[in-house]
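Continuing the series of single-chain predictions for the mutant panel. This is the parent chain; the variants come on the following pages.
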Amino acid sequence: MLSNKIDRSGFTFIEALLATAIVGILAAIAVPAYNGYIDRTKNSLAISQIMAIQTEIERYYTREFRYPDALADLGAALPGVGIDPWGNAYVYLNIINGGPGVKGDVRKDHALNPINTNYDLYSKGKNGVTKKQISQKDSLDDIIVARDGSFVGLAADF
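Parent structure:
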């Protein structure tokens, strides 16, 4: 005698939908966490490159008895070829040896006090945009040198 039973060993539509929903929820949690990790890694790389550039600037000062006019004066010693992890050029401004009008380009804190006296050195950060006052929204993601080198880090942390 033949059996009329149908083999039903597979996923039902509800089971497949539930599995898809679980994968979607896990992806929604994992992607922002991964992006945060990438941002922290790029910030750390920019901080280390800025510290290396700062060291090269001080070496230049020791040799030449003045600060360089531009980062290109450092030559091959420039870490990352002068490009930050986001693909933007590091920004350098010689304050102490600068000519007229340089004081107007100096970056300032929330109270409009200059953050450096010798030179400014910074990365425009993830958004690639910056303002002279580091407490403004566009500058919070910048990686900066402040207090003449005693602080190197995220502008939001200064």
